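Reopening this one. Same input as before:
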Amino acid sequence: MKKLLVVLSLVLGISAAAVAQPRAIGVRGSYGAEISYQHSLGSNFLEADLGWWDGGFAVAGVYDFILASPQWTAGTWNVYAGPGASIAAGGGVSVGVGAQIGLEYTFGSIPLQLSLDLRPNILTINSGLHFLGGFWPALGIRYAF
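Same output, byte for byte:
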């Protein structure tokens, strides 16, 4: 439990330390619910999520590469994908690796961001490997600032 709190503190501390970059905070929902924070790192971004699922909670971090940013409307579209890692607690502590692929739209006139993504993970649970996520698309709603 101590290790989980240290990792959570590091993820949130690093994200909060670089305040000069564009960022977004909100919720992401699918199989469970997550508090989601995005931080722009040049042309890519880091996403950190704290979520509740299956009677426990999880912390996930993903480094997303922006693959395309078509400018069809007044807002900004991004197609992104990247690797990630997670730690979950609930019936035991699990560590996982995974990836995320998605599409997001940030409105031009209001500070609102909508995203739709998939994030499959492979977790170690009770000394075994289990596949989690990816089959349920997640909808994210964030305040962009």
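So the earlier flakiness isn't reproducible anymore. For the record, Residues 15-20 have pLDDT under 50 and may be disordered.
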